[in-house]
Amino acid sequence: MNANLFQHISDAVSDTSKIAIETAAGRRYSYEDVILESGRIANAFAGRGVKPGDRVAVQVEKSVGALILTLACMRFGAVFLPLNTAYTLAEIEYFVGDAEPSLIVVDPAKRDGAAPLAERVGAALETMDREGAGSLGDLAAGESHAFPTAVVEEDDLAAILYTSGTTGRSKGAMLTHGNLVSNAVTLRDAWRFTSDDVLIHALPIYHTHGLFVASNVAMLADATMLFCPRFDADEVMGLMPRATTFMGVPTFYTRLLKHPGLTVDATRHMRLFVSGSAPLLAETHREFEAKTGHTILERYGMTETGMNTSNPYEGRRVAGTVGFPLAEVDLRIVDAQTDTELGTDEVGVIEVRGPNVFKGYWRMPEKTAAEIRSDGFFITGDLGKVDPEGYVHIVGRGKDLVISGGFNVYPKEVETEVDLVPGVAESAVIGLPHPDLGEGVTAVVVRAEGASLDERAILDALADKLAKFKQPKRVIFVDDLPRNTMGKVQKNVLRDENAGIYGS
Length: 504
Ligand code: MLC
Ligand code: AMP
Description:
Elements: H1 5-12, E1 19-23, E2 28-30, H2 31-47, E3 55-59, H3 64-76, E4 79-82, H4 89-99, E5 103-106, H5 111-121, E6 124-127, H6 135-141, E7 157-165, E8 168-176, H7 177-190, E9 198-201, H8 208-220, E10 224-227, H9 233-239, E11 245-248, H10 250-257, E12 272-275, H11 282-292, E13 297-302, E14 306-310, E15 324-325, E16 330-334, E17 348-353, E18 360-361, H12 365-371, E19 378-386, E20 392-397, E21 402-404, E22 407-409, H13 411-419, E23 424-434, E24 438-447, H14 455-462, E25 474-478, H15 491-497
Parallel strand pairs: 1-10, 3-4, 3-5, 5-6, 9-10, 9-11, 11-12, 12-13, 24-25
Antiparallel strand pairs: 1-2, 7-8, 8-18, 13-14, 14-15, 16-17, 17-19, 19-20, 21-22, 23-24
Helix pairs in contact: 2-3, 2-6, 4-5, 7-8, 10-11
The structure holds malonyl-coenzyme A (MLC) and adenosine monophosphate.
Malonyl-coenzyme A (MLC) binds near residues 207, 210, 302 and 407.
């Protein structure tokens, strides 16, 4: 059987006239529309010289066209490489140089900036705007919709998603068709998705959550998606009477809780709310239940693994836990010092194994070998424990990482840029509790002797270097950074001293 994700999605369609996607503006696309357009785009790829196995790098705004572009990549047998729309040109340059795509698709406004990058790697360059229109669509319009879906093996690459590293350089996580299909099928079944479902889709589609969880689960269930260009609490509340399911990062829930329309009545038609990508505060969980009568289902995953654990659909969803390992996922807790497996309630590093675990990092065999053990377990870098009932708790991170509004920010990357600003002697970047974003990226800076720079000067210097979500929300100036006897900066001290700066 063809392991292609696209094949699985098209096989799941029971009635091609069924609405696959409806935009917030009311435009409706049947499964047939989606399938035919993916064929035209796949033919356009061939016309632009793309070959199966080539990378197609995409930095475009969310639209139905953008989702169809993803499907076209799968169908063609190309490797889809999505890029956060917030990334600056300086950031994109690295990804393009590393992945060497043969086609780059960008928003028309970014075309001129991307042209030299495309030329450097010999890639074709096309555009797609926020309506899904542009030069790629123009090319596709002249093509046939008939395209034979590429026959692939489970182990063949479907996508590369870049994740920043704790030591600087971003790593391209290689995900196979088998990874994506197995995880989405497991989630569809675990969360009881069927063709009766209507999912409010307000997540971006360049990351695992919006792309491989929300979209793939809905399409493999033959369900309908209500596609919002971005999360907007008013819009989501307006769609709720017609929807059955919703997926979001914790910030979506804290923002919904502030909405006066969130009531038992307004959510009566819903059957499931899922949260993930960052810790959901137990308080948010309880407040949501009190206001709506719905218990949010929290799950835990990563770019490299897709989803690993989930609270049960039936049974107790426990606030502050991420539930049980999913079917097909083995999970263990390991002592970081001794590498021995720990028992119930003992805290260590979470390791996972299963068909969801990625194939390795693109062109980084040493990093792959350092993170995937010879017995197939992937070392997540998250600290956790399993309680006597089997619920997994995430209690912290072994990796230096900040999660802001569901986006990962690696302090090292921000510190490197801050340290380059003239007048900075050194810096430490930390995450501090933030009522909206969960954690707020915060830079603690020591000025160079005689320097008088202020917060504005630092933020201005970072503007073209780092995506907006990575930029510090606040800069705190200190005379010295606290260090331990080994000379290592004590970030926990900085976090404790500044914990309240964003209020509660
Ligand atoms: C936007 N900004 C952010 C930000 N998002 N800053 C920090 N953290 C973020 N997450 C910037 C904006 O550029 C803007 O800058 C300012 O902050 C305020 O903007 P906003 O209007 O409040 O932001 P908004 O556009 O509403 O975006 C917030 C958000 C969005 C939470 C809706 O970030 C979002 O959709 N997050 C979801 C992330 C996600 O999908 N993660 C899944 C990763 S997969 P200014 O100064 O111009 O105003 C994964 C695996 C797994 O982790 O387990 O799922
Ligand atoms: P990413 O690299 O963007 O895929 O982010 C993955 C990381 O997000 C994980 O390693 C965890 O640290 C974090 N994460 C995802 N889901 C949860 C959750 N439900 N609770 C706590 N942390 C989570």
